[in-house]
UniProtKB/TrEMBL annotation:
Enzyme Commission numbers on file: 3.2.1.8
Coiled coil spans: none
Residues annotated as the enzyme's active site: E299
Gene3D superfamilies: Glycosidases (3.20.20.80)
Listed name of the protein: Beta-xylanase
InterPro entries: GH, GH10, GH10_AS, GH10_dom
Entry keywords, A to Z: Carbohydrate metabolism, Glycosidase, Hydrolase, Polysaccharide degradation, Signal, Xylan degradation
Domain GH10 residue range list: 64-377
Enzyme type, top EC level: hydrolase
Protein's UniProt keywords contain Hydrolase: yes
Length: 386
């Protein structure tokens, strides 16, 4: 095949995720079976229909597809991850079983955002993030940290009226405290998230206005100091294909690295519309990889207009598959992470009115055509060794 991937693929973590030994695999398999059984029993026990925002969702017990699981079929060194939502974890009986069985990496969907971690100055609320990291350990999953510096989810107590020096110090403390807390347990961090405006200039945020453009480099240096082994990423949306914004991101990363800033990777969020998929994803990932960084698809979901039709779900499946393919074709691509795996908990209907059904599993935790398409792609590559 043209553009065949170069092997061997790099293991994304320096030491994480640890390869499972045979004994570890047995334990992991037993855990998955136990979780699935428990989840099934709990589902029978509750027997209630759920709603996306709060209540538990009853669902039939999950049984892995005869074709295998995503993590089972993933090539060595490639992470297939999902964002984790504690509501799903704590409320949906089927959620933990699917999470453990299908994915070998996780990202906290919201639990590690600043607003949630430090509700008041110096008072940290680690429980949500810790729950996810502890579970990931038990499941043999790598953890991708999300996110240190963002214009959203800054706690209300951080005041835009503070002088620059105070803001800078508060940001430094935040980055340092969070990275240090998860040191050795998070293989990579989104150090800065969505720092570009649509036209490719640096986004007009509190941080840019008060601290100037140097805040980006500062954040990377603080993060490196707090955990020298964690890979440090810039994360962005609208840059999956060859857009003007992607050009600007490429230039930003090139310049940062030329200045000696420790940028190790570029994350492409991948919040996609099945009707308007990005073009040239593989070539785009490659040109970033050529800078010497890792790349990753960090927040993949593919929304369709509601009500979802069979045709919509088929298109969605093709988009999911194309993105996975692009990543697998680029040796520096460390992971594909979906932004939640069940339509029961997806953020999409709340943010993109009229759209939804964006995930690999439906609201009842049944696998959709997109899941089958990913399994098929992974299995095909196993057969051909590609
Ligand atoms: C979203 C979460 O999925 C929602 O639950 C939350 O209400 C808002 O944030 N880009 C990002 C993610 O980097 O953190 C966002 O996650 C989705 C867009």
């Amino acid at each position: 095949m043209a553009g065949a991937p170069t092997r061997p693929r790099p293991v994304p973590a320096v030491t994480r995720p640890r390869p499972l030994t045979a004994a570890g695999l047995l334990v992991a398999a037993a855990l998955v079976v136990a979780t699935v059984l428990l989840a099934g029993m709990a589902a029978v026990g509750t027997g209630r229909a759920g709603d996306p925002d709060g209540a538990a969702r009853a669902a039939p017990a999950y049984t892995p597809s005869a074709a295998g699981t995503l993590r089972g079929l993933a090539p060595p060194g490639t992470l297939i991850g999902t964002a984790v939502d504690p509501r799903g974890l704590n409320l949906d009986p089927a959620y933990p079983g699917v999470l453990a069985a299908e994915f070998n990496a996780v990202t906290a969907e919201n639990a590690m955002k600043w607003r949630n971690l430090e509700p008041s100055p110096g008072v940290y609320a680690w429980a949500g993030g810790d729950q996810i990291v502890d579970l990931a350990d038990r499941n043999g999953q790598a953890v991708y940290g999300h996110t240190l510096v963002w214009h959203n989810d800054v706690p209300d107590w951080v005041s835009p009226d503070w002088p620059a020096q105070r803001l800078r110090e508060v940001l430094r403390r935040h980055v340092t405290a969070v990275v240090a807390h998860y040191r050795g347990r998070v293989w990579a961090w989104d150090v800065v998230n969505e720092v570009l405006a649509e036209d490719g200039s640096l986004r007009d945020t509190l941080w840019l206005r008060k601290l100037g453009p140097g805040y980006v480099a500062d954040a990377f240096r603080w993060a490196r100091q707090a955990d020298p082994d964690a890979r440090l990423f810039v994360n962005e949306y609208g840059t999956e294909g060859r857009t003007a914004k992607a050009d600007a991101l490429l230039e930003l990363v090139r310049r940062l690295r030329a200045d000696g800033v420790p940028v190790d990777g570029v994350g492409f969020q991948g919040h996609l519309d099945a009707e308007r998929p990005p073009e040239g994803v593989r070539g785009n990932l490659r040109r970033f990889a050529a800078l010497g960084v890792r790349v990753a698809v960090t927040e993949l979901d593919v929304r369709v207009r509601l009500p979802a039709t069979g045709e919509g779900l088929r298109r969605q499946a093709a988009v999911y598959r194309d993105v996975l393919r692009a990543c697998l074709d680029v040796a520096a691509c460390a992971s594909v992470t979906v932004w939640g795996f069940t339509d029961a908990r997806s953020w999409i209907p709340g943010y993109h009115v009229g759209f939804g059904a964006a995930c690999l599993f439906d609201a009842d935790f049944r696998p959709k055509p997109a899941h089958a398409a990913l399994l098929d792609e992974l299995a095909a590559r196993r057969r051909t060794g590609g």
